[in-house]
Fold each of these.
Amino acid sequence: MDLKTYPLGKLSEGGLRRFQSSMLREESADPLFKAKKYKDACMNYIKAAALMLRRDLPTNGPFRLPEYARLSANYELTEMLACLNGAAESLLHLRQYKQALWLAAEIEVVIRNVQMESTRWTPYFEWFDFDLPLTEYVYERLRARVTQQRIFRTLGNTGAANERRWHSTTITPREVQTPEMRKIHPHIPNDPIYQLRHPDPKLVASSLTVTDPTLQVLGSWNKVNLQKGAGHLYVLGGEKHQTGPWYRDFWRMDLTALEQWQPLPAYPVPSSVIKELVGYSMVVDGDCAYLFTGRRELDSSVRTSLAADLESWPYPTNDIVDYAMQSVGGKIYVFGGSHKDSVIGCTLLMELDVAARRWTRLSGTAQPKTASYDGPGPRRLACSWVGKDCNTLFVMYGDADRQGARVVGQQHGAYNAYAHDDLWAWDITRRIWDRRRLVGNTPAPRSEMACTYFREELPSTSTVPTT
């Protein structure tokens, strides 16, 4: 993540009054915390935060809140973070991990809202961290990350804990560290904690306990015998290794019999047009399975058209891989992915009306040159699913391959890729993106993950651990 320092905002007269009232309330909470009266301290910290917002703290709801956005990017914001940190640390002492984790995570929601408001005329990509020239601000951000790290490690979520620890290091370079910062986050060269796997077998074997049943499920992985069902399972292409061989064969298994794989006609498009069948996806609509490769043609016999407002095919190289694709309501949706002209990933969301064979561009671009706060940032290898209402397309996580972009000399290149930590929802009817909150014992940011969404409540069976 890149650090970018922003100028301090101005504190309005009304903001000054709220700031002073909140400070008084917070100062009344500090002695209670030191006296280990954590419940009373927590209530006072929360009341102090409410004074800053002129409303109660939101327990969930939309990611973007005007009450957060209007906080000035100065001591007003820092005071808000201090109140949330005090409440979170009080709850941590009370072992109320769910509420403590929510408040500590809410700090980044507040910061992101202030950043979006402060830079609304010149948006910045997600990998630019919102840094202010205030030691107190840096300290409060660090407190929140350290609290989250402690809770995640208590819950056995070593992946999220290590990500928070790594981020704590990136936001506090040595030149800005104070004794208070080093006390809560000591710098450890070659920290062995980063050598852990997630979860690490050495830790899991000795700590299979439930600390908070609202955030954990005690279970274990079991090999499940595949039961007979309906339909067929199809597999097309793939690779054995990055250096090959690459496959173009097509197979299916009859799930009613589960006897053997059946060969189907190989992919007919020559390798001179589609080189390797790797990184693509297929979705089912009706009786057909559709493969998308970045070309307008669904296959050699099915041509498609473009919507009237789409002057040309948006994929410049007629190729896209590592995208997210879903099918619902007779439409196919394709989001993100990378191609030769944008290795970092893209923000393009396309819709195919299967019956009309017509493509429509819904949002984003295949070559994101500038940032936007109106939708997900450029990414590839995200996970996606369609909500229970069949009207919402969800996109979560994925990465922006900044390292790959740097290697080929493209825009936004850097020495490290950026792993997204967000969740977005596309409203199919309203045609608008809405960022959603991720709360609770969340997985660490990642890409290339497996994901599935079960629209009904999972049954309690011997193969689904429930206790």
Note: The first strand starts at residue 2 and ends at 5.
Amino acid sequence: MSQNPPLDPVWNVSEIGETRGFEDIVSRGGGGDGDDADLPKTVGRYQIESMLGSGGMGRVYKAFDPSLNRHVAIKVLRELDPELCERFALEARSQARVEHEFVLKVYEVGEEKGRPFIAMQFIGGGTLGACSSTMRVEERLNVMRKVAEGVHAAHKVGLIHRDLKPGNILVERTDDGEWKPYVTDFGLAREQFTRGITATGIVVGTLEYMSPEQARGETEQLDRRSDVYSLGATLFEMLAGRPPFKESSIIVMMRLVIEEDPPLLRSLNPRTPVDLETIIAKCLEKEPQRRYESARALAEDPTASLNEAIQSYQTALRADRSHVAAHHGTGYAYWLIGRWEADHGRDPVTPFGLAIESYKRAIEANPRFVASYVGAGNVSLILGEHALLHGKEAEQTFSQAVTFYRKCLDVNPNVAMAWSNTGLAHWRIGYSVAMKGQDPGPSLREAIACCQRAIQIDPRYEYGHLNMGLAYEEQGTYELSCGRDPSATLSRAQSCYEAAEQINQNDALVQGNMSRVHLIRAQYALRTGRDPGDALRMCIARCQRALRLNPESEDAFLVMGQAYEAEADHAFLSQREPVKAIQLARESVTKALLINPTSYLCYHQQGTVTVLAARWAMIRGRSPDDDLRRAHEAFQKAVELNPRDPRPFTGMANAWHWKARWELSRQRSSDEAVAMGFSAIDKALALNPADPEALATKGALLLAEAAATGDVKRAGAAKSTIEKALELNPLLRLEYGTFLGEAENLESGRIAR
């Protein structure tokens, strides 16, 4: 239960005033405020070279690690106060949990003569506060974009920093001359959704960069958006030369932070682009829900990202963009409304359409403003996704997205996001044509080429690797559907996802994508008569990892359900009991539907698993009727949500086929079941006449009809239909070969009615 904040928060000066004097000195490279004659010779295995400085909690030394032949920074606690020891241990644990290139690495936590120490990465530059004056504006923006990525990595593992500021960001120049930042000093960090150490109403942090809720002492209300505020305040200082609020009086500062709006950035720096001012103002909103939802959202704002601000800054200095900003901002507002409508199960087409029109007007006002092209492209992508998931034509919308991204690249060919998203749109076009039974190869090759270009521009751009992996994965899925070995293509997809994982090990999306690669491998093994066990275990492990990172991942639950379904299929083929696998598959898809009750893919999966349960009931001599009824309901729901995907119709026809077989085994009429099955399968084949699964299912229905009537011609039709399906996909032989044999025997009269 949350506490009411105290009327007069108690300020712990050692936690507010002195924190800025500690990490600021980690990278000064020598000197500090002590006498080298008093230096210890060693701390642990580390050879002390100089004291970098001292702060409220302890001292920091530059040291050499002879074991690994590298310099490190050693932080040693000054006194053994239990609370300080707790803070010290928290800092080490927190910072060590975040593995990201823009977060300072913790190498070791140890003790020297009873005093705790931390061995950290040594940075030879300085703090952002000290070095920003030597940076160009573009460099400061680029540094802050990277800082936001590092902070997002901390948020992904559940940590809130609570003291982000220029003094807690170290920077150094890389060999290619770029500035690289490192987020550090997690001494005030706490687990999200826990009370943390400071649960007494004591306000900690640094006022100039502190969110209003943190200044009010609302410890339990702090979340990632509190850090977003601090990032905005830091970015404000990088561009204005001062933080949003600056007063010598703590009481006055508190009132300003809690009650007053910060000055507009352009009032302090008139050359600031309007969209950049808007980004920072959004970070500094008093109400957390009005800020960016995450540091990643700040780093990659879909319509006016920091990345785009960097690339358009010089143009912005020369252009009058008041009309551009108005139209661009309106487009963004409509985009937000559309996302809200979609998230709440409503039709977002109208607000998304208005967003695109607003972006078009912004482009007319300034054809060189790349952010509006990207914004329009992103909205088109989302519109296409929405259409695809609701059974509407989507290819034209995805092509529109490509057009917008290409126009952005005509203005600036070095926007990695635009190249990557162009690839994403081509991937979706490929997916759409594959659904119709056409070759997605040309679209997927274009997608791969675009993503390769994005990676050439920025090898650390995670989504370039992810989107290229999606294209290879879709190609592998298509190869499997044609009866070809997808192994080589899947290996390429896996390599892309592994590259993305190297950049961000805590992205649930990466884990989910990896799980699908293993699932497709398992399905190939299953259809070639091999044991899919290893691939299924790896698939499920990746799903579980994705769910640890994002417990609300509908896709992870869905893929896990498909993995358990494959396990049940293997049990059928191996003549083992599939009950446990069927139960786990059902539980997984139920959880997916709880997260997204409008997912037609989840309903389709629910129907497929329930048909397996019905088949097992038939084998045990029990009526499958209840399971088949539930399967029909699930497939019907999937069809209502997306009538353009042939798979739910095929699933429905397959369920009627097993119903017909059950009736025949009980010497009852199967006419109704067969008729309903034909009705469903005809709809599937109308959508994709060359769908091997649909053709094989139609052949099975023809066989059931022939078995009921003794019609030799129908048996011949069943045989030729199944043969056509196997010609299109030879991998279906294991599943439908028995039916083919039955049709041949019935046609030749070897099986009597």
Note: The two ends are 72 Å apart (CA to CA).
Amino acid sequence: MPTRREFLMVSSGVVAAAGLRGFAPRTRAAAAVSVAGSLTPYLDPMPRLTDNLVDITAGGSQTLTATLVQRQVHSQFPKPTTLFGYTRVGGPAADTASASYLGPILMAKRGHPVTVNYVNNLHDQDYLSVFGNANSYTQWTENHTGTGILTHLHGGFVAGVNDGNPFASSPAGYGSFQTADYPNEQPAAGLWFHDHLLGATRLNVVAGLAGGYLLRDDWDSGSRADLPQGPYELPLVIQDRRFNADGSLLYPTNPASLNGPWIPEYFGDVMLVNGKVWPHLDVEPAVYRFRFLNGCNARIMSLKMNAPMFIIGTELGLRPTAPLPASRLTMAPAERFDVLVDFTRLAGKTILLQNSNPPTPISNPAPNLSQVMQFRVKPVASGGALKTVITTLPPPEATLTELISIGAPNPRGLSGVRNRMITLNEVGANTPSWTMNLNGAGYMSATPHVEQLNVGEVEDWYYVNTTPDTHPMHTHLFGFTVLGRYTFDVAGYVAKYGTTHGVPRQDVTTLVPFLKSALQPPAPEEAGFKDTVKANPGQVTVVRAKFSLPTTATDTPQRYVHHCHIVEHEDNDMMERFEVS
């Protein structure tokens, strides 16, 4: 019988190397025929998602409709690809083939609340139009008409009922809508919204339901003379996908030898940027601000280019104090980097953005997919181009300063803050009943866990990874600062505390005899507030947060979730509830 990792390769078309990451050699299941080799890279221009930008910085409301769209993802496909997308009045029509399936970009401002209505125009047959069968769709989803949606503002500081999570809200069926109030009470940041339907997040997201939410504030206003603005500030949403020869999306929705519809991870054989396969972008010899988002279902990327790069922000806002020169950007799904790229000395050059396997200890089972996109630098810059890189950023928010001032974590419980353990488990890895969980119980367990958090308290969360994968762990509602990582004796810890459902949550002090290193500092690019962190195999990853609620949360407890953002893991079943009172 095929193993869990064999199905990993269903979507890659590449044979897995024996002894992958030190585990037993694995073969692969039969893969679909790849059409990637028939597509010419860098043929099509990259869509500028800011062409579909909605300025709601003054507040107000906006209505987005989730519907079928037709988009030409590569000009060599014989016809447009049928996908899901969010449309709006005044934006590209559903049949505008040249547009991106991603978007729109909603640009809001701190202190100016907005309301977004997400209308569901997806019929049952629309799902079939994208995926070809519905066997995978009904697993664990709640009752609704048509293809359900539940839109989550990723990184948003919002009340539970507005968060778009299955613990606080029910999905909107066909002909219905979801209303979300966003108070915008957080610093400027590059947020995004995407579907979060219980049991089918991986499907609605791979089908196209994602857009941008660009939050401004007085400092990062979009009009500073020392930061790129207008056409020089662009989101770059990078995703891997597979397509059939006719251009239709390929996702293995019902592998016959696994339990139900599950595949462990989905890996594509082409890269898309802003919804276009291997595009090019014409740039000037100037400084650009690119907001990178890893929008892949499961792929961890390590991006590089032969142009100077400077990280100025992470998921939840600007870095403290100064830009960070970077030779590469290592990003797990849902991680974001706000980056200045300096093309000023590259006039007339062609620059490639390339991907490679990330360095250890990050575990990345995806076959390498090196080509991403091409930048074509024009001979001269226009009058509005910025020629220098900013050297000073604003001081950190007071909460970040407070969290850092507490000092190092202490697994013995002596740091003065509460320690909370989150164990990451893989169960039945070589059986048809493969699943994932947190703290020994999946989200759909008969007795699911509900973490209890209190407003005003500071906690250190210890992500104890007992699996062979790197998991991008994402928290709704709150951001955190990464404190560092310990290595630990996985086999010994699992032997002592493991059960048939993995390792249930323990007191953090139980880790102490199994730790194999002192605390290793976080990577320099992890400085600042984040909402997603890489929890690597063989490591205990520690983050620190202080809990609060927005003014729109008028009662308690407020309900949220946290989970792995490899969306195949999230759906099966690596997600846990928490309440904030």
Note: DSSP finds seven helices and 32 strands in the chain.
